[in-house]
């Protein structure tokens, strides 16, 4: 954490945002996957993951990560 200059509370906040958004997104994503073609949804989520996880690694500061994290959470579900 010291290498990217994040305090513990900032890391915990990011983890909390992840769990909270997963709580909201997972039921909706499950419904959409059951209702429509699941393969295209899985591939779309995989492609978003491939794009957004590396981008979070090159983020310039903490607030960029916090603002971009909801999109990343959507891509993994």
From TrEMBL:
- In the record, what terms sit under GO molecular function? transmembrane transporter activity
The record's listing under Gene3D superfamilies reads: MFS general substrate transporter like domains (1.20.1250.20)
* Highest taxon listed in the record's lineage: Bacteria
Q: Does the keyword Transcription regulation apply?
A: no
**Transmembrane spans:** 12-29, 41-65
Which residue range or ranges hold the Major facilitator superfamily (MFS) profile domain?
Answer: 1-77
Keyword flag Transmembrane helix:
yes
Provide the alphabetized UniProt keywords: Membrane, Transmembrane, Transmembrane helix
**Name of the protein in its database record:** Major facilitator superfamily (MFS) profile domain-containing protein
